[in-house]
Structures are given as C-alpha cells and as structure tokens.
Amino acid sequence: MKMRIILDVDNVDYAAIIRMLLPYVKEQDIPSLLKPVLDNAATPGVLENFLRLIPKDTQDNIVLGLVKKNKDRIIRKGQKLVDDFGIKGDVVDLRLKKVIEQ
C-alpha cells in the first residue's frame, strides 16, 4: 500500500529551513546569493538579517531550488528519520511547490 502524507506549511522560517538543508546540499547547488553568509550561517540572526534584505519571491526560489536540486539527498535523510522513529516504510518522494494565493 502506498500512502501520501501532505503537510501544507505557511509562514515558514526560511533561515531555519536553509540551516537544516545545508548539510545535505551539494556545495555547487548553493545559490551564489547565499555564499557571502554561509560561513556565519550558524550564528543566530545572520541568515535572518540577510533574508530580510532580499525579496520574498527570491527567498521562495532559494528554498525551492535547494530542495529540487538535492531531493534525493533529502529523501535519504527523511528515510533515516523515519527509521530512527521505528516506523517501517520507504520514503519515496519529496515535492515542494509554491502556492499562489488568490
């Protein structure tokens, strides 16, 4: 049996998402826009302050791009988390899309 779990998330803390994803992202897939702050990304406030300077649409595209380009690596981490919780099953897909509000 295949089951789909869908989480709709709003008001996402992009700085936290970026911090979470960085260990699973290939260095060449990190947008050049982020590279100046990477060395200090773990320092509280650095990513948050940087992201305030760029448009929301650009922030969306950064996160969407990181996930899209590193989907397989993130799925492997998701599988490890599922295994660590003792849940039997296979993580087979990850989809992230921007929802346009009307």
Task: List its traits.
102 residues, 0% strand, mainly alpha
The total beta strand count reads 0
Q: Overall 3D geometry?
A: globular
Task: Determine the fraction of residues in helical runs and give it as a percent range.
Answer: 40-55%
- End-to-end Cα distance: 35 Å
Q: Which stretches are low in confidence, meaning pLDDT under 50 for 5 or more residues running?
A: none
Helical stretch count? Answer: 4
**Biggest β-sheet, characterized?**
none
Name the structural class.
mainly alpha
CA-based gyration radius: 15 Å
Report the portion of residues in β strands: under 5%
Q: What is the chain-wise order of helices and strands? A: HHHH
Question: Could you report the average pLDDT, rounded to the nearest whole number?
Answer: 87
Secondary-structure blueprint:
Elements: H1 14-21, H2 46-52, H3 56-69, H4 71-84
Write up this protein.
The chain has 102 residues and is mainly alpha-helical. The protein is 42% helix and 0% strand. Helix 1 runs parallel beside helix 3.
Put the structure in a nutshell:
The protein has 4 helices and no strands. With 102 residues, the protein is mainly alpha-helical.
